[in-house]
Amino acid sequence: QVALRIRPMSAAELAEGARHIAHCVDHQVMVLQDPMEDSSDVLRASHSRQKSYLFDVVFDSTATQETVYHATTQSLVAVVTSGCNATVFTYGPTGCGKTYTMLGTDGELGICARTLAELFQTIEDSSSDVEYEVSLSYLEIYNEMIRDLLSPSLGCLQLWEDASGHVQVVGLTTVPATSANEVMQLLARGNRQRMQEPTAANCTSSRSHAMLQVTVRQSHRGRDLRHGCLCMIDLAGSERAAQTQNRGQRMKEGAHINRSLLALGNCIKALSQPASSKYINYRDSKLTRLLKDSLRGNSHTVMIAHISPASTAFEESRSTLAYAQRAKSIRATVE
């Protein structure tokens, strides 16, 4: 499933005279207008760069956190408790609301908190014959290095791929959890360790990709029944140095962010093409190696793309929409 969320215009965009160019037509279609287009130019009317995009669901700037959660992620709880894997990740330019959608605020809970609350409520309401074990890990990919956000003193961790092709992080801390509040406290602790720095596009810009992995094991009288895993990923914002005005260390970080997002885009593009024999290069970045199962079909995957409606963000919005549209054309095959 691919969803699109259009954030409200910011005060800075309004101050610089930006116009609203991203419009929802209905719950699935949105139109992006070209701010440079002259509506009175009849000669170039047939070459209009205005384009409509179709997604599974489109949210305008008035959509609440609850609306976004119910339409995109709520169904993944049943997927995980039934023994399957599920992934939800946010994508889009810096400052378009990805972290807000995923983590939210104290007053407006994000996808993580709502999903975990429903997961533990489902476990509490389940049959007393079945025992559940919930554990979690939390990591970030910063400058192509993996850091454990629950135990940052471990330093940089390595990826290891077993004979069946399953990728795991060696030495990653796994913590048992018994309630949603406990998980959110661990999440808050991890977020304090996450790399965040101000840029011209966002004063609290995430400089890393963060991945929360929640594993649910079911057993009955000591015998394993099912095993499901839920991944919730807050990707760093796609970078344009001119937009973020990055220099020095921020510029290097942006280059690494772009490299991993380009690798992800290449995988999505290859997966969306009909030739099933085409080689999919997951090894170009640690992000794509970790997302391998989620992209190729061994997981129920939801992508929530984010854009700004401002005319000053036209190029970033257009590239994000093209990226998301390619992702929507992926036809997953379970292995």
State the main characteristics.
ATP binding, ATP-binding, 17 strands, microtubule motor activity, alpha+beta, Kinesin_motor_dom_sf, globular, 335 residues, 33% helix, ten-stranded mixed β-sheet, 26% strand
Produce a short descriptive summary.
The chain is an alpha+beta fold and about 325 residues long. It has 11 helices and 17 strands. The two termini are about 20 Å apart.
Specify the overall morphology: globular
Strand content: 25-35%
Poorly predicted spans: 199-203
Count of individual helical segments? 11
CATH topology: Kinesin
Report on this structure.
The chain has helices at 11-15, 65-72, 75-81, 98-103, 111-125, 180-193, 241-244, 248-272, 286-290, 292-296, 314-328, and strands at residues 2-6, 22-24, 29-32, 51-54, 57-59, 86-91, 131-142, 145-148, 156-157, 159-161, 167-169, 175-177, 196-197, 205-206, 209-220, 223-234, 300-307. The protein is globular. Strands 1, 5, 6, 7, 8, 9, 12, 15, 16 and 17 form a ten-stranded mixed β-sheet that branches. Strands 2-3-4 form a three-stranded antiparallel β-sheet, covered by helices on one side. A two-stranded antiparallel ribbon has the order 10-11. It contains eleven helices and 17 strands. It is an alpha+beta fold. Helix 5 runs antiparallel to helix 6. The longest helix is centred in the last third of the chain and has 25 residues, at 248-272. It has a single domain, classed as Kinesin motor domain (Kinesin), CATH 3.40.850. 33% of the residues lie in helices and 26% in strands.
